[in-house]
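With this grant's support, we have settled on a layout for protein records. A representative record follows, to show the layout.
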Amino acid sequence: MANEFLTLMDLKNRMGPGDGAIASVAELLAQENELLNDIPWAQGNLVTGDVHFKRTAMPRATIRKINEGIEATASKTEAVTETCVLLTSRGIVDMAELDLAPSAEAYLLTENKPHIAAMGEDLCASMFYGTEATGFRGFAARLNRTANPQVIDAGGTGTNLASIYLVKWDQDEVTGIYPKNTTAGLKVMPQANIYVDDKDGKKFLAHVTEYSWFVGLKVRDDRYLSRVCNIDRDALLAEGDTAKTARQALFNQIIKAKNKVRHVDKGRVVMYADPDIFSILEIAAFEKANMALGYTDIGGDRRVLTFSGIPIKRNDCQSVPEKKVN
């Protein structure tokens, strides 16, 4: 049985009274970055992340006749360690300014909002483009070869390439993780009356808040992910037959990628695209260029762009052109 699907807001609602500052940060993070409302979170079994066993070979079933034996078969697994990384940010507010605020706590949260949002943006970028060198292997690093069965090559060869990622979030198979013995990996360290330097090196008294988030990504089954890579943005954004041909090819590639995902019709499956690709898909939905594209009511009061019922979300951290995947 799968574990309970806990988003960041679910974790926030379970925090105790003593975790009020951390709960406020968790709420702000979820408000500022839509990706954080998709990710299920699970506590790792290490103080630095999580170690799990990935199945590399399945046992074989054998047909046998009455009074005949069968050969013994076994599955194979390998230990995989997923490492959490520490995202940090520091908010500085002049004590004189803070003393004038009706509510110091509310004012600090408002003033430090950009610093908290920056951690969410860093996490988003790491989820997609984190590397082995940074200690956070993102989706691109896990789906980095066209020979990978979960990767569909769109064939682009230019310098303005993009990808569409399909993720089936699952508390057991694809999840965000935080170290054990932590509160969602979040930590808030406020300090009042600290001397800091202004832009000219002159000192003033300030309230300094250190925010940190110890987080990682666990993928136990690669079949819960797929990627359409080497998408040529320039061809899609062109005019006339060039764009029409490129867009029709993209629809076909998305279908192939969708059908690479295990149990794609169940659970929380989301498709992520950069702003340009998202706009192209949205225009195609208005033009009825593809029957699979359309809008679906989510939660009764929100219409979401979908492909075969799968939500498509605009993801700004995918805006930078990608390198060609070979």
Remarks:
- The chain has one domain: 8-54+78-318.
- The chain has a mean pLDDT of 91.
- Residues 8-54+78-318 form one domain.
